[in-house]
Amino acid sequence: METALGDFSGLNGMELIIDGWFHERGVMWPGQSMSLKVEEVLYHGRSLYQDVLFFRSSDHGNVLVLDGVIQVTERDEFAYQEMIAHIPMFSHPNPTRVLVIGGGDGGVLREVCRHKSVEKVVICEIDKDVIEKSKTYLPTLAKGYDDPRVEVKVMDGNVFMADNPGHFDVIITDSSDPIGPAAALFEAPFYRNMYAALREGGIICTQGECMWLHVDIIKPLISKVGEFATTVEYAYTTIPTYPSGQIGFVIATKGKEEGCKEPKRRDEEMEKVLNYYNGDIHKAAFVLPNFARRAIFE
């Protein structure tokens, strides 16, 4: 294990595993790196869209990496999956139709399906390899696919939304960073398409990048979405294996003047089995440090 585990080159030919350690280095977080010790490479290949790597780590369980960037570790995934799903779901009084864009690992599906009000969940994931391999290597997340209310669409979410205007109560976009196949998911036209696919009173929640690193992305996106959404807000969660240990969510509403800073419902039984989300942390997630509030909203 002290030697290189073969040729595991990712985006731009960068070597991902050196001397038994995976190293996450990216242009979106210059000057810093995240490293995890590798016990075994489970799968490495190139899908139609991106480099896909699964490995078993020494202390974080199985890990999914896309184009050299950590997407999921079994140790801390709940901090992201629960917050991106339950903030919008509990902000809606009765969500029955839900759309998930991306999220091929199945974690968001798992959390959405905890809500008894849900009648149907559609997931649009463009990369079928992520779905198939996650079922093998991330079964605790991919069990979200087992729920009979889930319908899987291997396709571009933009196309699907265009065919289903005014249809969904909640739309959640679980995307990677705005490089490669996910770039379009951070542009205003995509948010307009999501907005059009919402029912009145509906909620959008999307991966919104890191306040420590990406206010230059977050601020203009918030401004553009605010031009057509009823409300637009930024919330965040902490998660050790994401850059700077934090990731945010852009949350927008259609015809919901009060926004999403207060949960509309509480489910004490569900909260007992969750590992991160509760009603109090829902409210706290919108309280930003001064530097971020100024940089994003002023």
From TrEMBL:
One of its GO terms (biological process) is spermidine biosynthetic process. This is PABS domain-containing protein. Keywords: Polyamine biosynthesis, Transferase. One of its GO terms (molecular function) is spermidine synthase activity. GO terms for cellular component: cytosol. The active site is at residue 174. Belongs to the spermidine/spermine synthase family. InterPro entries: PABS, PABS_CS, SAM-dependent_MTases_sf, Spermi_synthase, Spermidine_synt_N, Spermidine_synt_N_sf. SUPFAM superfamilies: S-adenosyl-L-methionine-dependent methyltransferases. It comes from the Eukaryota. The keyword ATP-binding does not apply. Gene3D superfamilies: Spermidine synthase, tetramerisation domain (2.30.140.10), Vaccinia Virus protein VP39 (3.40.50.150). Residues 19-254 form the PABS domain. It holds the Pfam family Spermine_synth.
